[in-house]
Amino acid sequence: VQLVESGGGLVQPRGSLRLSCAASGFSFSAYTMSWYRQAPGKEREMVARISSGGDLRNYADSVKDRFTISRDNAKNTVYLQMNSLKPDDTAVYYCHVVLRYIANWGQGTQVTVSS
Predict the structure, then answer these.
(1) H helix or E strand, kind and range, residue 6
(2) pLDDT in tens, 52-88
(3) Alpha carbons within 13 A on the beta-carbon side of 60
(4) How many angstroms separate the most distant Cα atoms in the chain?
(5) What are the pLDDT digits (tens) for 8-41?
(6) CA distance 6 to 107
């Protein structure tokens, strides 16, 4: 199983970024995928989740109406579109999937929101 995130970087407040997670080693289209984040000194938290077919999505209250999760099962990729970014969104963002009760994580991508 491999999850490779990309798209992080430094962005100004109110800016946008699009994260990608390329997955391999499992039947991507059969599994719910999630994005988590972890800020310095804080616990890792779920940001967004999308069902295998893409029809069901859940978001943390802190990102609702600003972030959008999507997936392309033909490309084995899940995305996180982040708009209206705030300094509190600064964190390492991780791609996540549970396979046979085992959590799998990518290496993470740093997002820094600062002027």
Answers:
(1) strand 2-6
(2) 999 999 999 999 999 999 999 999 999 999 999 999 9
(3) 15
(4) 43
(5) 999 999 999 999 999 999 999 999 999 999 999 9
(6) 10
And the tokens for 39? Answer: 């800020």
Query: For 42-53, what is each residue's pLDDT tens digit?
Result: 999 999 999 999
pLDDT computed for residue 60 by the predictor:
98
| Closest of 65, 102, 92 to residue 81, by C-alpha | 65
> Mind giving me the DSSP string for 48-100?
EEE-TTS--EEE-TTTTTTEEEEEETTTTEEEEEE-S--GGG-EEEEEEEEET
Q: Which amino acid is at 15?
A: G
Cα(69)–Cα(102) distance, rounded to whole angstroms? 22
- Angle of CA points 105, 8, 4, to nearest 5°: 35
Q: Which two tokens stand for residue 49?
A: 């989740």
